[in-house]
Amino acid sequence: MTKEEILALRNEPWRDELRKKMSPKDRGALERVKMPELTPDYRVKTFTEEVQQGLTKEMAVAEAQRCLDCADPSCMKGCPVGINIPTFVKQIENEDFEGAIATIKKTSSLPAVCGRVCPQEKQCEGNCIKLKMKQKPVAIGYLERFAADYERESGKMKAPECAAKNGKKVCTVGSGPSALAFAADMIKLGYDVTVFEALHEIGGVLKYGIPEFRLPNSVVDAEIDTLRKMGVNFQPNTIIGKTISYEQLHEMGFDGIFVGSGAGLPRFMNIPGENLIGVMSSNEYLTRINLMGAGRGQGADTPVLKGKNVVVCGGGNTAMDSARTAKRMGAETVTLVYRRGLDELPARAEEVHHAMEEGIDFHVLHNPIEYHADENGRVKEAVLQVMELGEPDASGRRSPVAIEGKTETIPADLVIVAIGVSPNPIIPTNFKGLEISKKGTIVVGEETMQSAVSDVFAGGDIVRGGATVILAMGDGRKAAGAMDEYLKK
Predict the structure, then answer these.
(1) Residue 199 in this model has a pLDDT that exceeds 70
(2) Which superfamily does 3-154 belong to?
(3) For residues 177 and 158, which has the higher predicted lDDT (pLDDT)?
(4) I want to staple 163 with a disulfide (CB 3.0 to 4.6 A). Which of 183, 190, 267, 286 is the partner?
(5) Could you give the 3-state DSSP secondary structure of residue 171?
(6) Helix (H) or strand (E) holding 453
(7) CA-based nearest residue to 312, from 330, 327, 334, 329
(8) Is 0.90 surpassed by the pTM of this model?
């Protein structure tokens, strides 16, 4: 959306009326709303109830009143999918909740998801002009979630309008956020769209990677159902590159292919004892529990190891998810080991806060260097190297440096390694002609997301090597626009 279009919307009569009702000074004096949450003692006993309970209508309207309706809305500069944030926020203030979700859905296919898991503090809210005024930013993420939840809970979810069919077929590899965003934009443009997913459930990392206490499966399913109503065809249990080849996709009539196969290959530290029983990746641990229901009292056949003294290695959101899940699995102690300090944790501040409330022990400035086994070959303790922060690295973060000769040994009968992931290798290995980076990612044009194979576009973690949901969605939208232009030619 251009600046001129934003200004034109800003001058609509109803928005003028809202501006007259309250001065900027009065709006600045309003306190940021605090979303209700389940108590820590209660929530560590449930997998499916969300920690954050959402806003009431009154709370949403009150928070929307804090927006200054800037002439040059800097918040939009931080949104990878280009949501018209000022308009939907003002529509909420005007109690036009249906209008608000319609505005969001013009550019975002997963508003209820993004409202829950996006790092708004680094994106839209991180660009809010109120920060320059030493005020807390407008809670844009809370308001996006409210609008999406209001529509879903009203039972009146509307599928966006789609253009007439143009006779061309496209498909996605994977059903994560980049693929779903791509599918939504392409179906709107009139293409036949098929989403291929290797697993039995649609949603990719939204289903297997993020616990339900942060993102309920019912919320993801509702977003996917909207795409289904728009005409997107979903085909699970299909491994593109194995069960169906690149050549066979063309034989099936697909004119364009979007690869959003993610980064499902776990990384390990390659230290002594890492192959012991009881040491596993966060991918395996969370997938067993989130997707397969292991250990959740649902009669699931999938097993999962439980531990009394659980150690989680890492400091990102996946590490927080793993630690908080272990607590819900009945662990007596959960220790999160991170080689830098608390100020350097890459996880969202909100997730760190919730983990601390739930009793997770943060063992910062420590790094695992070895695991010891009991007589049965299962891990029994972790040896940690004590660290200190040295000079900043290339990214500006201070590098962790080992303090020579200083270690600590702690009990651990389950270790979850959450130090990052690498791209899924199936497509890079089986699609001939792709340019692959040293890290295993597919190389694409920055503006087009087009690969070295002209009809193959890619985005999300298979290109970035591990990123946020909203950045993946931005890639999917960018790829859809570029593929549309390519196929028209």
Answers:
(1) yes
(2) Alpha-helical ferredoxin (1.10.1060.10)
(3) 177
(4) 190
(5) strand
(6) none
(7) 334
(8) yes
